[in-house]
Amino acid sequence: MTSNISAQAHWRPVPFHQVALADGFWKRRLETLNSVTLRACLDQCESTGRIANFAKAGGSAEGEHKGMYYDDSDVYKVLEGAAYSLMTVRDPALEAEIDRIVDLIASAQETDGYLSTYYTLQAPQSKWTDMEKHEMYNGGHLIEAAVAYFEATGKRKLLDVACRLVDHYGDLFGPDKRHWVEGHEEIELALVKLYRTTGEERYLKLSQWLLEERGRGHGHGAIWEKPDWGPAYCQDDVPVREIRKVTGHAVRAMYLYAAMADIVRETGESTYVDALHNVWAHTVERNMYVTGGIGPSQHNEGFTHDYDLPNESAYCETCAALALAFWNQRMNALFGDAKYADIVERVMYNGALSGISLSGDKFFYVNPLASQGEHHRVEWFHTSCCPTNLVRFLPSIGGYAYALTDRGLALNQFVGGQVAFRLPDGIRVDVDTRTGYPWDGGVRVEVKPEHSHSFPILLRIPGWCRSFRLKLNGEPVLEERLTVERGYLVLDRCWETGDCIEYTMEMAVVTVHSRPEVEANQGRFAVQRGPIVYCLEQEDNPSFTYDAFTLRPDLQLACEYCPDTLGGVTVLRGRDPEGLPATFIPYYSWDNRRPGWMQVWINEKETGAIYTS
Amino acid sequence: MTSNISAQAHWRPVPFHQVALADGFWKRRLETLNSVTLRACLDQCESTGRIANFAKAGGSAEGEHKGMYYDDSDVYKVLEGAAYSLMTVRDPALEAEIDRIVDLIASAQETDGYLSTYYTLQAPQSKWTDMEKHEMYNGGHLIEAAVAYFEATGKRKLLDVACRLVDHYGDLFGPDKRHWVEGHEEIELALVKLYRTTGEERYLKLSQWLLEERGRGHGHGAIWEKPDWGPAYCQDDVPVREIRKVTGHAVRAMYLYAAMADIVRETGESTYVDALHNVWAHTVERNMYVTGGIGPSQHNEGFTHDYDLPNESAYCETCAALALAFWNQRMNALFGDAKYADIVERVMYNGALSGISLSGDKFFYVNPLASQGEHHRVEWFHTSCCPTNLVRFLPSIGGYAYALTDRGLALNQFVGGQVAFRLPDGIRVDVDTRTGYPWDGGVRVEVKPEHSHSFPILLRIPGWCRSFRLKLNGEPVLEERLTVERGYLVLDRCWETGDCIEYTMEMAVVTVHSRPEVEANQGRFAVQRGPIVYCLEQEDNPSFTYDAFTLRPDLQLACEYCPDTLGGVTVLRGRDPEGLPATFIPYYSWDNRRPGWMQVWINEKETGAIYTS
């Protein structure tokens, strides 16, 4: 049963390399990413032996495998990020460095196609004995890197490695062959990418076969035996089409749902649709932090029970927030609903961006919403999935901005820059977007079709936005003449070159409350302005002691854009009931100055007011 | 025990006749008031025999008293309004007409000073036998009219009538004389006005004596015997300094508290202060509608139990909303806190303004927050206190805008126009305010002291306003350099002629919820933007049936100022979950087109959202 709201839209995100960012907010972050973060992560992969593991497995270096069985994936993710970087600025030195690493990876592939340096070096006789050991997870990240590097450079070498690896999977697993439930999802969505790049349907079929393996008792390995964890930890408790609730390890769950959305998209598999809608609602309505963070518990890096969202002990792995964005990007394309892009936005400006320092060389794995002062970013982790996930997410940020709909263009995220694309009917359109987002709700969009042409432009109305104004070529557009569909303003008209949309979202300071079921936030409020969730940090608030103060939920806050503060942020300044100053900064920007406490959810001064807004 | 928050400020409102309105919103309303409403009310007082009652009592006409025992007060209130009108535009024809009525009033005064046409004509032997019969209530309104007419014209005749009447009260009542508890308060605050105009302390003393009579068993009359009503109905249940909760008839209660505030102001009577703070909180935190309406019940024209705020059967007498403003204006001057001006604002743009049609000739006595379509304004009422209260409230609206503080000026309400005043130290200052309020949160204030001079200007930060910006002579003022005191931004500096304040209050569309104790609003929300409470009216919403639809509380609303709609209003347009259009208009402006249903509180579509703002 597919209701109207579930009707599939089959949009196509405009790839980030067609989007020339000219955006004060993101451009600067990406410059740092390219100049600092990517280099730092490559160096870490080198110095921690992650790259050397490939040389060792390939026989060009001596020694044992170093690190964890999933460390190959970090190298792949940095390669993926480097490929994205090369799509924007083709840097020959970087490309030569990647080529060298690609050669090492290729050398590490066994003759039958097998590739996972841990098993090759450490336990070649134990391959495929423990489904938790990330063999296909590594393979999935190899695929994503290979596709990215092929698209960036046209070089097939890594893609061929990936195809050989996947063909090897196909030799071993599948209908009438061995069962396999990959303990950490990733391979499933990667196989769909590989299918899209190569056109080989067997990759798509293998992806869906892997999904269908789950929840049928085929899984086994260390994780399945762990008393608290079991099959639900890696989403092996029910067949995927029967999923209704989010469970277990947060990143794994998100990657699974992302793959399910991909399969619906590519195969029309309608039996997954209800599962996707149900688990989406269960995730975002009961198990998501206001920052877009998910997975409250360190114990299982994942979910516990509904509305369990502690602040200080919030795990909120950076990767989990990113994975939530990956999934929601796919849901948006699949169903054409702005509510999914809202989640992407919540993640990209809050719970994911907090994962990286302004300097670009320090990272959070864990993103709590309160800290007494002991939580700080570091340069690398023993398990370093988060830095390397940021390295591939951030350069592709422009890819979240636009999507091609059936006939036109949707603006999903508001980033300044030029985008060039062809409509489904072949007409080329250039669009130039200017905005002070996320500090200002004004967006100016200049539309330049190659000739006059009728098509719809959809503008997302963010979930946080209660009111907006629209002008077309300087003339206000009345609401009666607007169509709103699935959270988008739809401007369906004949566009002429130079037509200009001025879209002004009212970006008010608001205080936010949780549902009362969220115990941790009872009697507390948070502050948000536009997409940005704010926090108080000790550095700006010497009058207060951690959690030992109250503010009125109707406090007034002066908005001030401070270009020299924290890389340029809008700061909110107000007073406590005693008149002591309270200064809010964006949550993502905390822990970039002297160490100190931080709080997102503030104890609320009971005002007795009969009406609250 | 007087806490810091109770510290008295003793501000002095700048009288409306020093404020030259040049304001799109109010100027138009006042033009209609002067050209239509005042005339209509004078004509009604004539045609219903209210004016003739004075001629009959004075012997210049024949016949019985017509109407109710409190009808004299309507004539006084129209005279008061006419006097205010004359202060702005001295219209000789109107003044001649008022002079004629004043002569009739004076002729109706008995030789001992007694004046109340009902008793003189109908039951001269029964004077002062039933404390409910509004004898001093009529006298109070006579005083207010007399003071106004004296201030407007310098003519003492009506003032002399008033003084003779009050001296007559003093002959009969007071310490060691007869007891009196006036059933409908009004005389008490009027006596303070008379004291301020004449300087006669006995008027002040009589006022306080009358307050002190209450709650001591001295009251008697029809109303005291009524089973459901009793002493609490007219606030005769406890001595005034022991009042903690609002009770009984809403207008009576508000006039009482207004008088108590006056007495604190004039005498320093500290034992009333806690009562005022307590009853204020009890009124606005548990017993006030979002429109500023008060008194839910028709039965007693007043209060029932806490949080009893039904919408369709809301009584919300226009006079009660006005009286709430009168009281809060006094509280603001007494304590210098913006929260009282917030209440004045809530009343003036909502629950009071709804009392009069845009055409100026039709009135609501009852102001419900929901109607199935049968509630409409009419030209006059048998008991017509509400139209005549509006006639005196509206022309004095400019008097709510500014107050002189101990050293400077406070901007309480944002209305465009020029104001000229002298600071307490004698320096003359002119201020020119420009604003698009209440549709726009920008206020530009040009300050012109006669010479450079240091004094504070206080800008109210409205309770609805979460954020604001401030510029001084074009330069942004940082929040750190701002002082906020009791809800005001305090700009204490040396002002030069031509200094310009640009104060921009972020005027966002917000959805408002009641405390859960308000049963009528459970599962409902209202929409507010700036000071304006919105409603849905049938005329704009043909897709909906009364109360049989739901909207999402996070719905998006396009703001559109429509100069030709309802006298110029900002309309909010959105969609229901099915995409059907929903159009909100200001509550005050409903029932000015074809009859139809109206709702302020809208059934909320449960979204399941974990975070709400």
Give the overall form of chain A. Answer: globular
Give the integer mean of the pLDDT values of chain A.
Answer: 95
Radius of gyration of chain A: 24 Å
Note poorly predicted spans of chain A: 1-5
Q: Give the termini separation of chain A.
A: 38 Å
- Which structural class do the helices and strands of chain A define? alpha+beta
* Residue share in β-strands of chain A: 15-25%
Biggest contact:
A-B, 55 and 55 residues
How much helical structure, as a percent, in the residues of chain A? Answer: 25-40%
Number of E-type strands of chain A: 23
> What count of helical segments of chain A does DSSP give?
16
Quaternary structure of the protein:
homodimer
Query: How many distinct domains of chain A?
Result: 4
Account of the protein in words:
The structure is a homodimer of 613-residue chains. By secondary structure, chain A is an alpha+beta fold. Chain A folds into 4 domains: 1-14 and 238-398, no CATH class; 48-218, no CATH class; 404-505, Sandwich (Immunoglobulin-like), CATH 2.60.40; 509-603, no CATH class. Chain A has 16 helices and 23 strands. Chain A has helices at residues 24-47, 50-58, 72-88, 92-108, 117-122, 135-153, 157-172, 187-198, 201-213, 222-225, 230-233, 250-267, 273-286, 318-335, 338-351, 385-393, and strands at residues 12-13, 19-21, 370-371, 402-404, 409-411, 417-422, 428-435, 442-449, 453-460, 467-472, 475-476, 483-485, 488-495, 499-505, 509-514, 524-529, 532-537, 557-562, 569-575, 581-586, 598-599, 602-603, 611-612. In chain A, α6 (135-153) runs parallel beside α8 (187-198) and α8 runs antiparallel to α9. At the A-B interface, α13, β10, β15, β16 and β18 of A face α13, β10, β15, β16 and β18 of B. Chains A, B: Residues 409-507 form the Non-reducing end beta-L-arabinofuranosidase-like GH127 middle domain.
